[in-house]
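As the work plan foresaw, the team has encoded backbone shapes as discrete tokens. One protein thus recorded appears below exactly as we store it.

:::
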Amino acid sequence: MGSVSTHRLPAADLARTDRLREALLAAAFTADGLLDLLGAPAYAALARSETVPALRATRGESPLETLVRLFLLQRPVPYERAAAALPVEDCLADGWLVREGTEVRATVDVRPYGGPEGQDWWVVADLGCAVGGAGGLADTSGVDRSQLVLGVGGASTTLAGITVRTPVESALDLGTGSGIQALHAARHATRVTATDLNPRALHVARLTLALSGVPAADLRAGSLFEPVADESFDLIVSNPPFVISPGARLTYRDGGMAGDDLCRTLVQRSADHLNDGGYCQLLANWQHVEGEDWRERLSSWVPRGCDAWIVQREVQDVTQYAELWLRDGGDHRADPAEYAARYDAWLDEFESRKTKAVGFGWITLRKSGADQPSIVAEEWPHPVEQPLGDAVRAHFERQDFLRSHDDAALLGARFHLAAEVAQEQVGAPGAEDPEHVVLRQNRGMRRATKVDTVGAGFAGVCDGTLTAGRILDAIAQLMEEDPVLLRDRTPESIRLLVEQGFLTPVDSSD
């Protein structure tokens, strides 16, 4: 594997890579620069692996157009034109470019990526692999397909967006691929370790970090937690090869374990590698098995002493799922009989495991050490507002609060109504009173929940100054209700509003 794993990959000489980065910045080969050059339609088309609009927009000879043609569109350009945009001899020496007569061409895809605080970063990937998905992988020019390294896709950006970004001492990017999660982790972790089963991926991750001017991670080869032995971390992130498939043809997507065993194993073993209070966040696929509730099934994966928040974002029946990943691997371009045989093998795999559908979503664990852990498994296919890292952290903080407050303590607490919560009244046109009232979040998870008149009134006056009990007493007086009865029946509703993030507890020291 060694000779294959680094086939045609550049070297990462630091001095020459610094000069290359300076040239990319000087030419505005950045996320903003691309948008300015290409325009929104052509820029969006690139994310779908459609290159014709970008080719039309790069017919000139500016340095930026040259770099787009070289690194994004993988077209050869004349040597002299490349020399006007890049330290071309450095790039030839390190292998970013190869010369073919009077022209040069790129050996890898280099794609600008905007960091969350306006950083200009670049993500390296194999040619034709910057974006996977419905079109399938492009021509890989002799690279072993099982060792391909993909760039940034929707899954990568989703994981980056949901990750809790509090400053930590140590972070682990398990299954680093092109290095995008390690790139993000370097912003807030003193020490970043990145692992991958594929040595080629580790080399690509090293290039991504070096080209982006980010401190090098501790890169280690191996499967799952094997490379980190008995070490523990404050943060673990993973976009693992979670695809449920018959076999392990493509390292970047197929975990090589039966069914969803890889994701289950990762979740179950994570607690052994988390420091107290640490988070493990990953994307996963899971089986919907006949006769089993998927929520109960996944909740059983959660290790002792960990709180968990499991969010199912999408469900596909087994035929849709098989077709998606057959196209991702380019199998739809194979011989029809071979495609049909592979499709049949996928369905055989699902039938043997009594799998009727496959779920996709996020799993976040926090090592709380609680005797009564909070495990929330829910379906939420609705739009959310990324980034969600702060919302994820706040979810677990609210679980701590609810766990430590009985009803009496809850009524003695003070709350703030979360930012940008709107109230909607639903009912027949012209009706004197609404059928029900809905509170709707316009930030974060963008939840909506029905409340009664008391719940709406309570939430509306939560500004952190009065305790919940005093607010209920005032409402009881206005509604001419017994305040004792109102105090008895309302805590459950308050708990729900807190759990879902409509109400935020005010620190008693405030």
In short: The first strand starts at residue 77 and ends at 78. The first helix runs from residue 2 to 5. DSSP finds 20 helices and 19 strands in the chain. Confidence is low (pLDDT under 50) at residues 1-5, 132-136.
